[in-house]
Amino acid sequence: MLTVNVAINLPVKSLFRQFTYAVPEALAFLDRGWRVVVPFSGQKVEGFVVERVPAPTDDAVLQKLKYVEAALGDKPWFDEEMLATAQWMSKYYMCSLAEAMRLFVPGKTSIKRRAVRDAQGRLLYYVYNERLKEKLVLAYSINDAGRAALAEGMLAKRAKAQHLALELLAAADEPLSVSELAEQGASGAVLRELAKRGLAVAGSKRILRNSYERAAERKEYLQLTDEQKAAVAQINAATDAAAGQTFLLQGITGSGKTEVYLRAAAHVVDAGRQVLVLVPEIALTAQLVKRFQAWFGDNIAVAHSKLSQNERGDVWHRMRTGAAQVLIGVRSAAFAPFADLALVIIDEEHEGSYKEEDHRPRYNAREVMKERCKNTGAPLVLGSATPDLCTYYKAQQGEYTHLYLTVRPNGSVLPQVEIVDMRKELAERNFSVLSRRLQQALVTTAAAGEQAIVLLNRRGYSTFVMCRDCGQTITCPHCAVAMVYHSANSDLRCHYCGNTAPIPTECPSCHSRRIKFFGTGTQKAEEQLETLPEVRVLRMDQDSTVAKFAHENILSRFASGERNVLIGTQMVAKGHDIPNVTLVGVLSADSALNLPDYRASERAFSLLTQAAGRAGRGGKAGHVIFQTYDAENRIIHLAATQDYDSFAKEELELRQDFFYPPFAQLLKLTVLDKDEGKGSALAQRVAMFLQREQLEGRLQDLLVSGPFPALVAKVRDLYRFNILLKAQDLQPVKEALLQSEFKEQKNLYFDVDPASVI
Ligand code: ADP
Ligand code: ZN
Ligand code: ZN
C-alpha cells in the first residue's frame, strides 16, 4: 500500500510534525508536492504531501491509517525548488514545514467540498475545489457549420458583419470573449445572431483579473552609460550561465538602476523565460511599473498588497502557466510559482518592508529569494543607493558581485545639502518647526515655479498631550505609548492599536484643566506651510492614503504641478522621480537617530540619502536642508555628502566592535502575555534554559541579553518581553530551542534576523 507524509495546512503552532496517510488506489499517482484533502481531527483539511514513505510494518498501525480523501489540482503544486526552499525556511526561521509551505499557495486554507448526488438524491461522491473563484465571461467559438459557411462565402455579401465575425472566430485558437470581439469590431448583437443561426457556439472563458491596469508610457530608447552597459552585460551573462549568482547593484539616487533592470529583464523575456521584480510597495513605485509596462505591455502581472485572494490566484496562474513573463510584486510575490524563472531583481533591497513583521514565520523575502535562486540557478540582482550593511559587506567580501553606478546619466548633479542647527533657531526665538532658512528657501522655490518635498516622520497633529500641572501624558489604555492628537476628527489616536479617544477636558490624574498639546506632526506642519506665500500643500502619510490608489493620486497631482509642496512621512522620500522638485527639507533629521537600536544609524543614513536624492533630478540644480538639534552628528554629515562608502566603513567597524551583524547573527525571542507577571516568568525560564545549555558547553559562543521589557512594553493589552541572542552561528541555538519544551509555546515568538532589537 502507498503511504505518504502530509503537512497539515492549519495555522496551529503545535503542528510541527507531519502525519502519515494511506493513499487509495485511485490516487496512486500522488507524490511529493501535491496538495491534498485529508481527514484531520474530525475535519477535512488541506495538506501538502511532503514525501512517500514505506508503509508501517505493524499491522495494527496500518489498520488505523486514514486515507487521503482527494487531490487538488491536476499536477503537484510544489516543484522540487519550492519544496527545497520551504524546507530551508522551516529550519532557518524556526517554523513548521506547513507554515512555510502555506506561503506558497494562494490564499489561506482554501478548499471547498461539493457533494455530487444522483437523481434520487443519493450521495455519490464529493468534489473538492480550491475556494478560488475563476472569473468566467461569455465567449464565442466557431463550429463546423460556421466553418463551412465561411468556406462557401455564404454570408460575405448579404451579412458582412457576420462574415467578419466568423473570420475572427476562425482565426482564433480559443473562444473569444465579447469584449475581445468588440475590440475588433464584432458586436454582441452580431454574435447572438450567429449563434441563433447555429454557426457559432456561446460558451464561457476564464478571464485573468488584472487589477492593476494603468495607462502605459511610451517606451524610451536611452543610450546606456558605460557603467550601465557593463552592469547589464554581467547580469545577462549570469542569466545565461544560470549559476545563481548574486549581484549588488549599488547606484546613487538617479543613476539609472531601473534602466538596468529593464534591459536585463528584456534579455530574459527575449529568451522566452520569466523574471520576478520585487519592490517595497507598489503604490510608491508606480513609475517603475509604468516603465515596465511600456516595455512589456500585457506580458506583466502585478501583485500588490491589496489583491483579493481571487486576483492573487489569477496572477499566480499566469506565472505558473507561463502566460505572463514578468511579475512585479511586493514581499509575498517571493512565493509565486513560475514556469521558468530566469532572473530575480529586488529593488531598494535594504527596505524594511521585505521583512514580515507580524505573522509567523518572520521571514525576509530577500533571503527567501536567495534560496530560491540558489535552487533554480536564476541570478539575483539586489539594487539600492544605500544597501543593507550586511549585503554591502558580502559584496565587499566577494560573496556577491559588486556593480556600481556612480553618475547620473541625464547630467544632473547631486544636490547641495545644508545643515541647519535648530538650537540656534530656538535661541533666537523662532519656535516654528520650520527654520527661517527653510521658510525662505520654500518661498523662493514656489516663486520660481519649482516644487519642494518636506519630510517629517511623525503623523498626526501634535505628538503628545500633557498636563501642565503634574506632567502626566495621556497614554493609550491598551498600549504603553502616548496618544497623538489628530486634527481631522479632533480626537486622540493610538498609533499602535488604532484606538481613539476624545480630547480630555481635564487631567486624569490631578484633574487640572491645563492640558496642552506638544510636538509637531505632519498635519500641523501642513498648516504652518500653508501660511507661506504662494505655497500650496499636499500631504501624504498613513492617514491621507487609506483609499485604494491614494498614493498614486497624491503623487500624480503633485507631479502635475497642481500643488508645489508635498509634506509627509517617509513615504515622500521613496522612489519617485519628479523633475521639477528642486528643494527637499527634512524637518527633524535626528529623530530616527535617537532610537536605542543598533540599526538606527543605518536607517537614518538611508532615509536622509533617499530624501535628498529626490531633489534636482531634472535639469535644475537641487538644494536640500537638514534641520537638526544635533548639528555635529557624524551620520547627518555623511548623509549630507551622500557618501555611502565612508558611512559603511565607519559603521561596519562599530558593528565588529560590538558584535552585531554582519559579524554576528541575531535571534530575538519575544514573549507576549496579558499577564505581566506570567510573561516575565516565561521569559526568565527561557533565558535560564539558554544559560544552562551554555554552561553545559553546548552553546559556547552564545551571548544572551535580557529578558527585558520591549521599548513599547505593552501593545494591545499584551505585555512584551524580549530576549536577544547573538552568536557567530545560531543554528545550534535554534535546534536546542526547537528540541526544548519551548518549541510549541504559544506565546513565544522567534524572530530570526530581526529588523530591530527593541
Ligand atoms: P534610479 O532608479 O537609479 O534612481 P532611474 O532609473 O529612475 O534611477 O533614472 C533616473 C533618471 O535618469 C530617469 O529619468 C531615467 O529616465 C534617466 N536615465 C536613466 N538612464 C539613462 C541614460 N542612459 N541616459 C539618459 N537618461 C537616463
Ligand atoms: Zn495633571
Ligand atoms: Zn493602543
CATH T-level topology of the largest domain: Rossmann fold
Query: In what order do the strands lie side by side in the largest sheet?
Result: 13-14-12-15-16-11-17
What is the CATH superfamily of the largest domain?
A: P-loop containing nucleotide triphosphate hydrolases
Number of helices: 22
What is the name of the CATH class of the largest domain?
A: Alpha Beta
- Give the overall average pLDDT: 90
Q: Based on the structure given, which CATH architecture of the largest domain is correct? A: 3-Layer(aba) Sandwich
**Which cofactor or ligand species appear?**
adenosine-5'-diphosphate, zinc ion
Largest sheet: 7 strands, parallel
Shape call = globular
Structure description:
This protein has 5 domains: 2-130, GIY-YIG endonuclease (3-Layer(aba) Sandwich); 135-207, no CATH class; 226-405, P-loop containing nucleotide triphosphate hydrolases (Rossmann fold); 416-463 and 519-655, P-loop containing nucleotide triphosphate hydrolases (Rossmann fold); 665-752, Ribosomal protein S10 (Alpha-Beta Plaits), CATH 3.30.70.600. With 758 residues, the protein is α/β, with parallel strands linked by helices. It has a 7-stranded parallel sheet, sandwiched between helices. Adenosine-5'-diphosphate is lined by residues 222-225, 228, 251, 253-259, 409-410, 577.
